[in-house]
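Hi support team,

I've been running sequence recovery on a batch of backbones for a student project. Most finish fine, but this one hangs at about 90% for roughly twenty minutes before it completes. I'm not sure whether the input is malformed or the queue is just slow. I've pasted the structure tokens below so you can try to reproduce it. Let me know if you need the job ID as well.

Thanks,
M.K.
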């Protein structure tokens, strides 16, 4: 079951690949009132304390598959369902230090029925998250 908050409390962790901490992950709930084709995702801005990553940096995991933002934009068979959390992976060598962090995001989505000059819609969220040792 998903939490009401856009930034989910469960799933916040550092990513270890081949014994090296290469980044961190967290989960996001769909901010819209219905699911969305992944090609309409414009990315997510991420801030943790003084660190900042632009929309095109984080990787997205939807339906068990990992994508760059460029891959999402050309996808034809991937949806971010209303009842599915997207896993966001932020490349950051060394990850985040164990402890409590202020995580802020701006989820940018397009809607096919809104004129292009008014897009994307950005859904901001902030939450304290904990990285365990």
């Amino acid at each position: 079951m998903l939490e009401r908050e856009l930034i989910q409390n469960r799933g916040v962790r550092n990513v270890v690949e081949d014994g090296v901490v290469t980044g961190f992950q967290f989960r996001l709930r769909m901010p819209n009132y219905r699911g969305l084709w992944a090609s309409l995702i414009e990315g997510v801005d991420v801030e943790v304390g003084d660190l900042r990553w632009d929309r095109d940096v984080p990787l997205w995991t939807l339906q068990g598959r990992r994508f760059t933002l460029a891959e999402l934009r050309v996808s034809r068979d991937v949806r971010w369902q209303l009842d599915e959390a997207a896993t966001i992976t932020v490349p950051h060598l060394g990850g985040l230090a164990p402890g409590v962090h202020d995580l802020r995001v701006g989820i940018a989505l397009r809607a096919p029925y809104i004129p292009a000059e008014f897009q994307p819609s950005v859904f901001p969220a902030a939450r304290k998250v904990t990285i365990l040792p």
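--
Follow-up from support: It reproduced on our side and the slowdown came from queue contention, not your input. The mean pLDDT is 96. No action needed from you.
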